[in-house]
Specification:
The protein has about 210 residues and is an alpha+beta fold. It has a single domain, classed as Aminopeptidase. The chain contains seven helices and eight strands. The protein has an eight-stranded mixed beta sheet, sandwiched between helices. A hairpin with a 5-residue loop joins strand 4 and strand 5. It starts with 11 loop residues before the first strand and ends with a helix. The chain binds coenzyme A. Coenzyme A binds next to helix 2, strand 5, helix 5 and helix 6.
Length: about 210
């Protein structure tokens, strides 16, 4: 059976830790997803099932199993994003191809209540370094709807290169949506860590006083 090099893994920087999903994430994952429907739905794949149904507590065990089995098969690296020890989002490395291409596509989301702290750029930087290191890939791609100014800022902060424009590329939020493709190849980092491109790391969370 094929196996993903570099999996499982838990890369971290400052208060950000990426780690594999686990069964006991269900309650926190479902609470985040249900609370963030309006924040996330415009950027998520279309589905015949309603938001509540596909993000309920009971939908987590089969999703967790599917993510873990895709990781075992070498097709993806599904990371949970933790900030100061709390689950705040997901970063999925998908379409992992080895051989001559050695490429992948990364998708992500972060709790709207935690937006604006640089969590996604730090998590994406960790994933890119991991893909170029332990996973042995050569190229990482991120595809973003042109309307998604928040996500465009994430790739801008890391200096990913704009590669092209895909018309009617993905079935998102009920329609085929255009996407801008961004990518980076290993040569562009000249052996350095992309984490060093971040202007700053997310601040340490002050959970006791803030929440
Ligand atoms: C895209 C996303 C992951 C960015 O995560 P993040 O951790 O907030 O990233 P950053 O902190 O770097 O913020 C990026 C930009 O979002 C904008 N932003 C920040 N806080 C915001 C808020 N509360 N509401 C709306 N936009 C906000 C700012 O323009 C910011 O850029 P700036 O730092 O130059 O001001 C997050 O906005 C998200 O999950 N959005 C919904 C799902 C999604 O779009 N996924 C990506 C699909 S390609």
């Amino acid at each position: 059976m094929p196996h993903t090099p570099g999996w499982p893994a838990s890369p971290s920087v400052g208060p950000i830790v990426l780690r594999p999903p686990r069964l006991r994430d269900g309650r926190a994952w479902s609470e985040l997803r249900l609370r963030n429907e309006r924040w996330l739905a415009p950027w998520e794949p279309s589905s015949p099932h309603g938001w509540s149904e596909r993000n309920s507590l009971t939908s987590w065990p089969p999703l967790n199993s599917a993510l873990r089995s895709n990781a075992r098969r070498g097709a993806m690296l599904p990371f949970m994003i933790c900030y100061g020890g709390r689950l705040v989002g997901q970063m999925n490395v998908s379409n992992v191809v080895h051989g001559a291409l050695r490429s992948c596509t990364v998708g992500y989301w972060v709790d709207g209540a935690m937006a604006g702290r640089g969590i996604a750029p730090a998590a994406l930087a960790l994933v890119i370094d991991h893909c170029f290191g332990a996973v042995g890939l050569h190229r990482v791609e991120v595809d973003i709807r042109p309307e998604n100014t928040q996500s465009l800022r994430v790739v801008e902060k890391l200096g990913l290169r704009r590669e092209g424009f895909y018309e009617r590329f993905l079935d998102i939020d009920g329609a085929w949506r255009d996407h801008v493709a961004f990518a980076i190849t290993v040569e562009e980092l000249s052996g350095r860590s992309i984490v060093s491109r971040l202007a700053s790391l997310p601040p340490d969370p002050q959970w006791r006083t803030r929440r």
